[in-house]
Write the structure tokens for this entry.
Amino acid sequence: MDNLILKNLQVLVGEEELQKRVKELAKQISTDFEGQEITLISVLKGSVIFASDLIRHIDVPVQLEFIRLSSYGNEMRSSGKVKAIDLTLPNLHGKNVLVVEDIIDTGTTANFLTSYFRLQHGIDEVKFVTLLNKECARKHPVKIDYSGFVIEDYFVVGYGLDYGGYYRNLPYVGYFS
Ligand code: IMP
Ligand code: MG
């Protein structure tokens, strides 16, 4: 663990602001899905913290599933490829599927998932909730249904997001200056 890097970490979105926005997103989702059930699909590992906070504020019946993808490796730039590590899911026929992402950057992962859910699960309308939206880095168009924060083109860590596997445990979102 490189302590030098930790020293140059600046807060981009603080803990309180994160928690407030997560509650707002959960409220909006609960309102939109009133009288229905949701299957939340958390994309590991990055979205695990966000997903666990989010579900606790959703007040319609929720089922939580996980898939595991990898796109960054140990770099600070998206590889442009999606590696599927575990796509094991139950039958999603007739379910309201809401994919939970930590960040939508180039849109490569979201695009992959849209095709995957359409082709493998027959779901035409998979929805996305993302904590962070790096809109300026988009290479593939993505329709985001719920977006926490639009951010500039920073490489960010914390609250689930990593650099080389570290920093996921930070309670805030930070960037290296
Ligand atoms: P995309 O496929 O380029 O949209 O990137 C999606 C994935 O790359 C996210 O789910 C993250 O896991 C990772 N990623 C993108 N930007 C960042 C970042 O700034 N910090 C850490 N991980 C990132
Ligand atoms: Mg991710």
Remarks:
- The mean pLDDT is 93.
- The pocket of magnesium ion (ligand 2) is lined by residues 43, 46, 102 (CB under 6 Å).
